[in-house]
Structure formats: structure tokens, C-alpha cells
Design a protein that fits this description.
The protein is mostly helical and 243 residues long. The chain has twelve helices and two strands, in the order H-H-H-H-H-H-H-H-H-H-H-E-E-H. Helix content is 73%, strand content 5%. Strand 1 and strand 2 form a beta hairpin. The longest helix is centred in the first third of the chain and has 29 residues.
Length: 243
């Protein structure tokens, strides 16, 4: 358990929890909507069992994603997808939750929750797999902690994020950081970067209060690009009349 004693492990765990909370707000709303027609007691059961099933499903999918990201080109594809997901977080969207069907039966509600979570979890799975960097312990702990937190604290979390939008901005920047790292560490381009732009793949060590942290230039560039693109697109969407 030497892994548990490192600052990098706890930083990674915090990053997984943060990314999952930022990306799971919609999932939590869907879970609430799917159970809304049940009696109160069954609502709690549906949310409890739906969340438990979602944890197991997400862990299995993310373990698979961790292995897939070792294959050529998949980190490039995943990195570009994460860029798109991170930028989209910063652009206001119209409410699209009205088409979620509720169920009047417990099993039906749990099934709806599972299907909705599966369909909406692609971004979470890729982001968490990338942050975990191959550590199964890290991703399992991160998902076990963050998914119940999202499901049972969904209303509070969404209010906090609405009141302090900087939380979403920092979350999007974190996803951009992960995407930047992924793009330059894909097996198909890694050697090229090592030969021609090694500073993109070399880590700088930052020491804070005696703890050493690794920083990636590619990751920092990815974070900056996401925030810049997201804010620019959000500004354009907010003032269409001026165009």
C-alpha cells in the first residue's frame, strides 16, 4: 500500500472525485426524474439501488477504458473527446431533461436509471480512466466516493455550482489538463514528442509545503485552451443579437 502514502495518489483521488462530480450533475437529475412517480419509500430504494448499480457499472466500464487507452490512437481520440466535453461544460445549454420518462414501478425505475447512467457516462468513464493512469485502486476509490455523493447530494451540489461557477471552470480546466496529457502520450506520437518537443512530455516537479507534485506542460496548455475556447463560445452564445 505504498501507493497510498504518496501525494500524487491523493491528488489523483481528489481529481477523480472532482471530475466525476462536475460531469455527473446531469446523471443525478436523470436519476431523480426517473424515480419521481414512485411512492416516497420506493423513491429512496430506487435511488439507492440505482446508484449502487451505477457504481458497479461505472467501475467495470472504467477498468475496460483504462486497458483500451493503452492501445494506439485511442488516447488521441479520447483526448479530443475530452477537450470537447470540457469546452461544452463552459457553454450554457438549454434544459433537455423534460424527455426523461419516470416509472411507476421500482424495477422499471432502476432499469431507467441504469440505462440513463450508461448512456450519459461516456465522458465520466474516459475522464476518470485518464486521471487514474492505470491505478485500479485509485479509480475504484474515486468512483465509490463520488457517485453516491453526486446522487444523494445532487440538489445541493447543483446549487453550489450555480452560485460559484468557478467550480465548473476549474473542473473543465482539470479535464482539459488530462486531455492535453493524453494527446501527447499516445503510443503513436510519444516518441516524436520525446525527440522533437520533450518539454511537452517531461514533468516539472513543483514542491509545495514539502510535497512534490508533477506538472505537465501539455496538460497546462490543454487546461488554458479549454478555458479560452469555452469562455469565447459562451460569450458568443450569450450575445447572438450583437453578431
Amino acid at each position: 500500500m505504498h501507493e497510498l502514502m504518496t501525494s500524487q495518489f491523493w491528488l489523483g483521488l481528489g481529481a477523480i472525485i472532482w471530475v466525476n462530480i462536475i460531469l455527473s450533475g446531469d446523471n443525478a437529475v436523470v436519476i431523480a426524474l426517473a424515480a419521481r412517480s414512485l411512492p416516497e419509500r420506493q423513491q429512496k430504494l430506487a435511488i439507492l439501488w440505482g446508484a449502487a448499480a451505477a457504481v458497479v457499472l461505472r467501475i467495470v466500464l472504467t477498468v475496460v477504458a483504462v486497458e483500451l487507452l493503452k492501445l494506439p490512437f485511442l488516447k488521441l481520440i479520447g483526448g479530443l473527446l475530452l477537450f470537447w466535453i470540457a469546452v461544452k461544460l463552459l457553454v450554457p445549454e438549454d434544459d433537455g431533461d423534460g424527455d426523461v420518462k419516470s416509472s411507476e414501478h421500482l424495477i422499471g425505475a432502476i432499469k431507467t436509471i441504469l440505462i440513463a447512467d450508461l448512456v450519459m457516462s461516456l465522458d465520466n468513464v474516459i475522464a476518470v480512466a485518464a486521471v487514474a493512469k492505470g491505478s485500479i485502486l485509485l479509480l475504484v476509490l474515486g468512483l465509490v466516493i463520488s457517485i453516491p455523493l453526486v446522487v444523494f447530494g445532487a440538489t445541493l451540489l447543483m446549487k453550489v455550482m450555480e452560485r460559484y461557477p468557478v467550480i465548473i471552470t476549474v473542473g473543465a480546466a482539470l479535464i482539459g489538463y488530462v486531455a492535453g496529457e493524453m494527446l501527447v502520450t499516445d503510443p503513436t506520437v510519444l516518441e516524436w514528442f520525446k525527440l522533437n518537443a520533450h518539454w511537452m512530455v517531461d514533468f516539472e516537479i513543483l514542491t509545495v509545503f514539502g510535497h512534490k507534485f508533477e506538472l505537465s506542460a501539455a496538460g497546462l496548455m490543454g487546461a488554458a485552451a479549454v478555458v479560452a475556447a469555452g469562455k469565447w463560445l459562451a460569450g458568443r452564445k450569450a450575445s447572438p443579437a450583437k453578431a
